Structure formats: structure tokens, C-alpha cells
Amino acid sequence: MSWLTLVAMGIAGVLLVIYWQKKDVNKVLIGGKRLYIQALTGLFFGTFSSLLAAALIHGRRFKGVLLFFENIVQQVNPSFLNILFYSTCAGIGEEILFRAGIQPMIGVWPAAIVFVLLHGYINPYNLNMTIYGLFW
After folding, report:
1. Residue 32 pLDDT more than 80?
2. Is 92 in a helix, a strand, or coil?
3. DSSP string covering 26-68
4. Cβ neighbours of residue 118 under 8 Å, at least 6 residues apart?
5. Would you call 96 exposed, middle or buried from its count of C-beta atoms within 10 A (0-12, 13-18, 19+)?
6. Best CA proximity match to 28, nearest among 106, 85, 101
7. pLDDT digits (tens, 9 = 90+) for 51-110
8. Looking at the whole model, is its pTM more than 0.85?
9. Contacts of 10 (CB under 8 A, 6+ apart)
């Protein structure tokens, strides 16, 4: 599934850039900024938002949401290397599709809403999951 996420979403994003946006893929992916600046910026904001999300989900109100995700992880029982692999594949594939392919066509907020909806975080029967999903 991880390879499928990486390859299928990556290809879909690249095709949207080439055929719909009619832009150079390398320029869209690089974004006109030096790679080390992008990497450091992503590392900083990714770490910051992850710490906030961890603080949020470990709050008393979100205990059910935490248990939901813990049960999923326990069922898969991934090793640390598996977690790194899954995260890398999802991160790259989703970024190429959503940030490079879809976001320039429909805008930041609509793309973010589609992203959250596809991940199933919006749940009319679970307000806490919805709040967590909107944050994340």
C-alpha cells in the first residue's frame, strides 16, 4: 500500500502538473527556493506541528481519538523501519499530488479540505476526531 501511495499519487501529481497546469515539474517541485532552505523549513514546521498535535491528542478530551489510532497501530504492529517507510511514502506521494498537483488548481484551503476528507478525519458522529483532523 505504501508503494502504491508513493507511485500512484506521485504519478497523478506529476501528470496534473504537466498536462493540466502545463508547467515544468522540476520547477514546481523545487519551488524556486534552495532545497536546504525548504528542508529546514519543513523540518521546523513539521516538528512544531507534530508537537502540538501530540499535546492535543494526549489531552483528556481526545483520549478516544488516541485509543482509535493506538488500536490501528497495534493491529499492524509495525517496526520502527516500517513506520519510517510508510511515513516517507505517504509524505512524498501526498505532497506531489496535493501540493504540486491539486493545490495550484483549486487553492490552499480547498486542497486542505479535500485532503482531510480523504483521510476520514471529518466524522459527524465523533466531534473530537473532527477537531483533531481539522487541526492536523
Report:
1. no
2. helix
3. HHHHHTTS-HHHHHHHHHHHHHHHHHHHHHHHTSGGGHHHHHH
4. none
5. buried
6. 101
7. 999 999 999 999 999 999 999 999 999 999 999 999 999 999 999 999 999 999 999 999
8. no
9. 92, 93, 96, 97
